[in-house]
Design brief:
Pfam families: DHO_dh. One of its GO terms (molecular function) is dihydroorotate dehydrogenase activity. Its cofactor is FMN. There is one protein chain. By secondary structure, this protein is α/β, with parallel strands linked by helices. It has one domain: Aldolase class I (TIM Barrel). 42% of the residues lie in helices and 16% in strands. The chain has 14 helices and 13 strands. The strands form three sheets. Strands 3-4-6-7-8-9-12-13 form an eight-stranded parallel barrel, surrounded by eight helices. It has a two-stranded antiparallel sheet with strand order 1-2. Helix 1 links the parallel strand 3 and strand 4. Helix 9 runs parallel beside helix 10 and helix 10 crosses helix 12. The longest helix has 18 residues. The chain is globular and about 65 Å long. It starts with 6 loop residues before the first strand and ends in a 24-residue tail after the last helix.
């Protein structure tokens, strides 16, 4: 059935609700072709970084200071193609493919660098995803100050462009629903942005015992990590009924995607599962969504989404029972750690 899985996201029509999240895979035309052929409804380019754009703005007048003060490092260009290459990538992908091409900005402070959003729009991007890095380094900055600063950053981008804008935020808010509301509800001057991507990928912190120094590693999303994403989607949807929401993180199967959409997401973003299994992972997720829609006796995914229930999350007693009931109803608890096969080795990796 033509259009049976089409959805709206940020005012754009997608042929399926599966979006390839921001990663280097999406800047290569041949890879993008395979992802779209497998069923991707849109792609998000790897983020262009604040440091790259600041360096680009400074290097003409003072190259040495630009390198020392911007935070730019050459390997960043290998990640996303560099500022000028980024614009060329947008133009090329727009000319080759019909699915929406969404650009990604990544930064933690405001400034003139955000004007690059206008160049992204001119290059042909269908929308912009602003990955807000919640860097709070001043012990005197309150949570209200930090939230206001990030909303102002998004509004700076909003003032630069006419294309749809989504904010990609972290889970680290005392009141996530409040932050979602600040970003998406019309305050008289229009909404700060058109939608939310929940959530930014959280790196893994560790400590090197040899160097006696903390370190940060980037890892794929762990298996069975969808639960925290679902909680955030439910909480955000409760206060932003009309905003677009993308669930990002932990979606690996068609069932995961359906769960995320029942929770309140309009689309799901996948990255780690594509790195693990290639474009076929998208095909399996899309097929799983299609089977569930057929099983639920809806003609289209839009009908299915319109029928999803709205769960209350703003009553203390309800929220307490959701926590207390599963805690106290049983003496046994699910253990997500897989058992080690005696044929492969013990828990310490010793072969048997």
């Amino acid at each position: 059935m033509s259009g049976e899985l089409s959805v709206d996201y940020l005012g754009l029509e997608l042929s399926t609700p599966v979006v390839v999240g921001a990663c280097p895979l999406t800047k290569e035309p041949e890879t993008v072709r395979q992802l779209i052929q497998a069923g991707a409804g849109a792609i998000v380019l790897p983020s262009i970084l604040q440091e790259q754009i600041v360096h680009r703005c400074m290097k003409t007048d003072d190259p040495l200071r630009a390198l020392s003060h911007s935070g730019y490092q050459p390997q960043q260009n290998h990640y996303n193609g560099g500022a000028d290459g980024y614009l060329q990538t947008i133009e090329e992908l727009r000319s080759l493919f019909d699915v929406p091409v969404i650009a990604s900005l990544n930064g933690s402070s405001g400034g003139a660098w955000l004007g690059f959003a206008k160049e992204i729009e001119s290059a042909g991007a269908h929308a912009i995803e602003f990955n807000l890095q919640q860097v709070v380094y001043d012990e005197l900055e309150t949570s209200n100050d930090a939230e206001a600063r990030m909303c102002n950053m998004v509004r700076q981008v909003r003032d630069e462009v006419q294309i749809p804008l989504a904010a990609k935020i972290s889970q680290r808010y005392t009141n996530l629903a409040s932050m979602a509301r600040q970003l998406t509800l019309d305050d008289g001057d229009g909404a700060v942005c058109d939608g939310l991507v929940l959530f930014t990928h959280t790196p893994h912190w560790d400590v090197s015992v040899d160097r006696m120094h903390w370190t940060i590693h980037w890892e794929l999303s762990p298996l069975h990590s969808l639960g925290a994403i679902l909680e955030g989607v439910v909480r955000s949807r409760s206060t932003t009924p009309d905003a677009s929401i993308a669930a990002s993180g932990g979606v690996a199967t068609g069932e995961d995607a359906i769960k995320a959409m029942i929770a309140g997401a309009d689309v799901v973003m996948v990255t780690s599962v594509v790195y693990r299994h290639g474009p076929d992972a998208i095909r399996e997720i899309v097929d799983g969504i299609r089977r569930h829609v057929e099983w639920s006796h809806h003609q289209t995914l839009r009908e299915f989404l319109a029928a999803r229930p709205v769960e209350p999350v703003n009553e203390e007693r309800f929220m307490r029972m959701e926590y207390i009931d599963p805690l106290t109803r049983s003496e046994t608890y699910f253990d997500p750690t897989p058992e080690v096969s005696p044929q492969s080795g013990d828990a310490y990796g010793h072969q048997t």
